[in-house]
Write a structure and sequence with these properties.
The chain has 387 residues and is mainly alpha-helical. Helix 4 runs parallel beside helix 10 and helix 10 crosses helix 12. The protein has a 3-stranded mixed sheet with strand order 3-5-4, covered by helices on one side. Helix content is 64%, strand content 4%.
Length: 387
């Protein structure tokens, strides 16, 4: 049936109705909608009253066990538990953004936190723990397109990970939303955001922003640049897909997420235009990415140098004569690729150097030395008592 014929039938149907009948239908519709609203309000009120903020999930913020030498500061190693290091978020680096009164706005200064806000929940500082429009949009997409979008705010994600574990169905999502509403009332936004950053999974077996900063860049979270923070924040929804070190496709997707995050940070006033220009001038390759780039650059430089040396003899590898222009071009290309390789190696060395001390402190050789020292002590004690 065409839409035109259907429209004609509807018109004929309505034309046959009396005014009183139309009024009755409208009243029934209004009553039905009102009853549904009141029922929903009653269910919400009951749920809000009966659902309380539970105790945090066991292990939600668990850290690895750390073993130190006798000086109490030199770390021997970290063993068992999630790769997580809890930090105080007030120590995270700040941007140069100022508010209208020309006083530094603390919330907008913290660019590591606000990279996450820009990427994950742009209404975080204004919403009440949930975003009705986001939920409605996700519900529409789930019903019409068969997707599984959550529409969750940062507070909802925090409620799920910190207090519920996993929200697997719509009933769990309702409970998650109620808890998020209560958290927005009982906890400061900065507390919620910091706990969220210390809890979530960032990829590379890292839980929390501190472990992520060390895994991706070999630095503490308070040493992250704006560009690095934007990359880490951008891949939160799917680090198993968007970690730039996984594949060529993942690197492409990571670059898109990184640029999107920086665009949103600028648009929402979290960074200045000057900071944006610096941050977008070069993609923040990870430690592993720098190593891969250095290896590729070195291989290219070696091949270019070999070609230049071959052409300098006056002939190519097959003995065909070459022109002076071809020789000069090969030499120029070789020099350029050598400079690129040198820069790549330098960057990789810097990345390696930033974690060398950390690796030395946490090496198994160090742990073995610690164990042997304890064994030696036990032997000496046994010998002393034997005497």
């Amino acid at each position: 049936m065409s839409s035109k014929s259907f429209g004609k039938k509807v018109s004929r149907f309505l034309g046959n109705l009396t005014v009183s009948t139309i009024h009755l239908i409208l009243r029934l519709i209004i009553i039905t909608l009102g009853a549904a609203f009141l029922l929903g309000l009653a269910v919400f009120s009951w749920a809000f009253y009966h659902i309380s903020i539970p105790e945090r999930v066991e292990g939600a913020d668990a850290e690895r066990t750390s073993v130190y030498w006798d000086d109490g500061t030199t770390l021997i190693g970290t063993y068992s538990g999630d790769n997580r290091i809890i930090i105080e978020c007030v120590d995270l680096p700040k941007s140069e953004v100022q508010n209208e009164s020309n006083n530094l706005d603390v919330k907008k200064q913290n660019y590591v936190a606000n990279a996450i806000v820009a990427s994950e929940d742009r209404t975080f500082y204004d919403n009440k723990g949930i975003d009705p429009m986001g939920i409605a949009r996700a519900l529409r997409n789930n019903l019409l397109e068969g997707t599984r979008q959550g529409g969750s705010t940062i507070t909802q994600q925090y409620a799920e990970r910190y207090f519920l574990g996993n929200a697997l169905n719509y009933q769990d999502k309702i409970k998650e939303g109620i808890i998020a509403l209560k958290l927005s009332i009982s906890q400061d936004k900065d507390v919620v955001l910091c706990n969220y950053m210390n809890t979530i999974f960032f990829g590379k077996t890292s839980y929390g922003i501190e472990a992520a900063a060390r895994s991706y860049y070999g630095v503490s979270a308070n040493e992250l640049s704006i560009s690095q923070a934007a990359l880490i924040a951008g891949i939160i929804p799917s680090p198993s897909k968007w970690d730039p070190d996984l594949s060529v496709d993942s690197e492409k997707w990571a670059k898109e997420r990184w640029k999107r995050t920086l665009d949103l940070m600028l648009e929402d006033g979290h960074i200045t235009k000057e900071e944006y220009n610096v941050a977008t001038s070069e993609f923040p390759y990870t430690i592993q990415g720098f190593r891969k780039n250095a290896e590729t650059a070195q291989a290219n430089a070696v091949n270019a140098a070999a070609l230049a040396a071959q052409l300098a003899t006056g002939a190519d590898a097959e003995g065909n004569p070459v022109t002076a222009e071809e020789i000069a071009k090969a030499a120029e290309d070789s020099a350029k690729l050598a400079n690129i390789a040198a820069y790549a190696v330098e960057q990789a060395a810097k990345s390696d150097a930033s974690i060398t001390q950390e690796n030395e402190k946490t090496s198994w050789e160090g742990f073995n030395g610690y164990v042997m020292a304890q064994v030696k002590t036990e032997i000496e004690e046994n010998e002393r008592f034997a005497k």
